[in-house]
Amino acid sequence: MHISRQLPLVSIITVNYNKISVTREFLQSIQRITYPHYEVIVVDNASIEAGFDELKNEFPAVIFIKNPFNTGFAGGNNVGVKVAKGAFLLFLNNDTEVETSFLKPLVDCLLSDERIGMASPKIKYFDSPDIIQYAGGVAINRVTGRGRFIGNKEKDSSAFIENTPTELIHGAAMMVSRKLLDTIGPMDEQYFLYYEELDWCERAKKAGFSLYFVGQSVVYHKESTSVGKNSALRTYYLTRNRLLFIRKNFRGFSFWSSITFFFLVAFPKNIFFCLFTGKIKLLVAFIKGVFWHLYPKNWS
């Protein structure tokens, strides 16, 4: 733990799953930050890959937790939450690296107004550091059930340097206040992987908190290192959880319009794409993601 009496403690939480070398690079990056008052918590989600004990020896100041089961993104982070002592909690993907000064602008943002419960930095692609992945987000569409990140695939510019209210934070890098956590609780572990942070956003807004994009804070993302950009696992959970998000957060017209859109537009579109491109594994994963909702136990 790095100590300063003047600034609030930030608990930086990350989850590792079979990517020791990626987590090592992440921790090396965190070691270089200028903010003086933080702790780092690494939760290993029952990895098979060896090397976790080596990380403990390399980074003795870090708190390491070995999860006996893989409880997913939300579950792994929630394990870290249980031991975190910070006034603010920063959830960072282990496939990110940060600019040395990235942390204080996030802290300053949340300190500026206690109604600000969540904030995400500017996120850029690690392999294309001038290109933006996230600079804020547009609310989940009540018809399509899809959201949109502002600035995605655009070149970074002065248009993306201000702190601005946003509808969506980004799961790869998100800071939350202890007040928000105490008010609405942690991420919903039923999602396991993907959409859990979007669900958290909805819960935060319903509780009266605001969300911010912080343009002076920059993080670089090695996107989808853990599961692969076009993996069957990713397809399964994105499909399953898109519908789960709709079920949990939409009511009335919004619910029925988004469900109708999914089955009349998204469903046939994805089936055709997988068949046309010969991606049979993705097709099976997509169908399994839909059929998960047919089991009564998944509606409890």
Textual characterization of the structure:
By secondary structure, the protein is α/β, with parallel strands linked by helices. The protein has 2 domains: 10-221, Spore Coat Polysaccharide Biosynthesis Protein SpsA, Chain A (Alpha-Beta Complex), CATH 3.90.550.10; 232-299. 38% of the residues lie in helices and 23% in strands. The protein has 9 helices and 12 strands. It has helices spanning 20-31, 52-58, 72-83, 103-112, 178-184, 196-206, 232-249, 252-277, 280-291; strands at 10-16, 38-45, 63-67, 88-92, 96-98, 116-125, 128-134, 137-138, 148-149, 164-166, 173-177, 210-221. The strands form 2 sheets. Strands 1, 2, 3, 4, 5, 6, 7, 10, 11 and 12 form a 10-stranded mixed β-sheet that branches. Helix 7 (232-249) packs parallel to helix 9 (280-291). It is globular, with a radius of gyration of 19 Å. The chain starts with 9 loop residues before the first strand and ends in a 9-residue tail after the last helix. InterPro entries: Glyco_trans_2-like, Nucleotide-diphossugar_trans. Belongs to the glycosyltransferase 2 family. One of its GO terms (molecular function) is glycosyltransferase activity.
Please outline the helices and strands:
Layout: E1 10-16, H1 20-31, E2 38-45, H2 52-58, E3 63-67, H3 72-83, E4 88-92, E5 96-98, H4 103-112, E6 116-125, E7 128-134, E8 137-138, E9 148-149, E10 164-166, E11 173-177, H5 178-184, H6 196-206, E12 210-221, H7 232-249, H8 252-277, H9 280-291
Parallel strand pairs: 1-2, 1-4, 2-3, 6-12
Antiparallel strand pairs: 4-11, 5-12, 6-7, 6-11, 8-9, 10-12
Helix pairs in contact: 6-7, 7-8, 7-9, 8-9
Pfam families: Glycos_transf_2
Organism: Rhodocytophaga rosea
GO molecular function, one term: glycosyltransferase activity
